[in-house]
Design goal:
Its main location: nucleus. This is Mediator of RNA polymerase II transcription subunit 10. Keywords: Activator, Nucleus, Transcription, Transcription regulation. There is one protein chain. The protein has 6 helices and 2 strands. A two-stranded antiparallel sheet has the order 1-2. It starts with 13 loop residues before the first strand and ends in a 12-residue tail after the last helix. About 70% of the residues lie in helices and about 0% in strands. The protein is mainly α. Among the domains are: about 60 residues; about 60 residues. Helix 2 runs antiparallel to helix 3 and helix 5 packs antiparallel against helix 6. It is elongated, with a radius of gyration of 32 Å.
């Protein structure tokens, strides 16, 4: 049996002391925990909705505190309890949402900078590493070509059989690649030999 706080839930709308009527926010914690699913998009949407609801609660709390008087003490306590419940709900929803944000992005945001700078820096770093890797690959291809030329002068028969084996291997790889791409899910079907 679960214990629920007295102040959250079906309390009547009260005057917050600033001339506006605020009904207490509904308790969505039970509804959202009942709808547990493994869909990452839905989990993310639930977290976003909880964040928006928390921001609304904070705004209501700000209005209540800014015009506080003795009559607004009960609404203030209700809003504080609602905020605590929603923060707890957000924490539970966030546990189901597996999103990893690089620490560098958070640091950029804290420094007041655009997080797109992080993306730009990562892309520029990838381009630089790609150029370095391409240079190494080209150097190995050049070395391989040079070695084959030297080996062909010294061992022409062995190099010819090596080239035949390489051609057969390349043809087999191409055939397997085409067989995999022809399957709707990418899995290759191996036909039994008859």
């Amino acid at each position: 049996m679960e214990a629920t706080p007295n102040t959250a839930g079906a309390a009547p709308a009260t005057n917050a002391g600033n001339g506006s009527m605020f009904p207490p926010p509904p308790n969505d914690a039970a509804a959202s925990s009942a709808a547990q699913t493994d869909d990452p998009k839905q989990n993310l949407n639930q977290v976003i909705n909880s964040i928006q609801k928390t921001l609304g609660l904070l705004h209501q709390l700000y209005l209540t505190v800014s015009s506080f008087n003795v009559a607004s003490q009960l609404p203030l306590l209700q809003r504080l309890n609602s905020l605590v419940l929603e923060l707890d709900n957000m924490s539970k929803l966030a546990d189901k949402c597996n999103i990893q944000v690089p620490l560098e992005v958070l640091n950029l945001i804290d420094d007041g900078k655009n997080p797109d700078e992080f993306t730009r820096d990562i892309i520029n770093g990838c381009i630089t590493k790609n150029q370095i890797t391409k240079g190494k690959t080209d150097a190995f291809k050049s070395l391989r070509k040079h070695l084959l030329e030297e080996l062909e002068q010294a061992f022409p028969d062995e190099v010819e059989s090596y080239r035949e084996i390489r051609a057969l291997s390349a043809a087999e790889s191409k055939r397997l690649s085409q067989a995999q791409s022809s399957q709707p899910n990418g899995d290759a079907k191996v036909k039994p030999e008859q």
